[in-house]
Design brief:
The structure is a single chain. By secondary structure, this protein is of the alpha+beta class. It folds into two domains: 2-116, no CATH class; 127-337, Aminopeptidase, CATH 3.40.630. Helices cover 45% and strands 17% of the residues. The protein is built from twelve helices and eight strands. Helix 4 (58-68) runs parallel beside helix 6 and helix 9 packs across helix 11 (290-312).
Amino acid sequence: MDLLFLLIWKLNIMTTAPIPSVGFIFSVLVRAASKIVRRGSIFKFKTWRRAILISWNIKEHLKLLRILSHPQPRVLINKYPELTYKYLRDYISFDISTKNSLSILIGHYSFLQNNFKDDFLDLVCHSPIALWQSCIDGSQFEIALGFPHTIDFEGDLCLLFKKDQECLYRIIFVIANGGPFNISDENVIFISSVQGMHDFDGIKQATKACQDIHPAQLLMSSINGLSMALGFNTVIGIGTKNQISQGEKLHFSYEKFFESYGDFVPAENYFKIQLPYAEKPLNLINANHRRRTQRKRDFKNEIRDQVALAFGQYLVNKPLAASPASRIEAVVAEAELA
């Protein structure tokens, strides 16, 4: 540990990047080294490989440490010291390089630091915060925003769909710069996981209660709401072969799920989804199904708008208003139904 600390300190002198305090670096190293010793992995090849990767990316690594030394993520760092180096393993996708993983991690926490109130991470780390709630047919439904404590290597925020306080579905994501995905957007939401909790009866009941809309689709409406509040124009959806925790017994087709939202980019193996989501014009839908389709759209848009407004209270700057867009959509829908 002392040798690693000296290496980082020496390379730190060689760079002009702002640095975190020596005390913060030391405390992170102590907690990380303690975990390595407890796991008995100090002599494993992967441990030393990661130390080498840190040295190769030392300038950006110190930038990450500086961002994570900010008071906002301190609770997370105290609980999860491996957050400072989790980009060294598979992070959010199989095909993202260590350099880009580090860039995405820096971008995410830098964005939170610059755009969210100081207590935001404390709140989501302690307990998911409700963004939408509704009592339907005697059951309480909720969409909440939290931190993925058990599988944080897939992302650093998650949306949860709950029925009577039990999570049925979740979407794990990260706020990233557009650069690592070769798109011009300054910031995007990258969805790395769409996962059910294996309560098939609960999911079926929730779908029926919520206008026959699957919980995963309602979570996508919530992603739209978050993006509206943040002023983002693009969502990136992961491809199946790059999904980190895809199970062998229960297979989820990300291609089938995301193809209704955006376009597949074969060279990158992801889906590029423009906001707002494209929808088939009502006049092209069978006349017998138009009102049902409009009811489903209204329900999803209501969730989108409420999520945007609830999420906005945690932002430093005033979010984009969701209601005018909804009014315009309602006028268009009425004209198409006429």
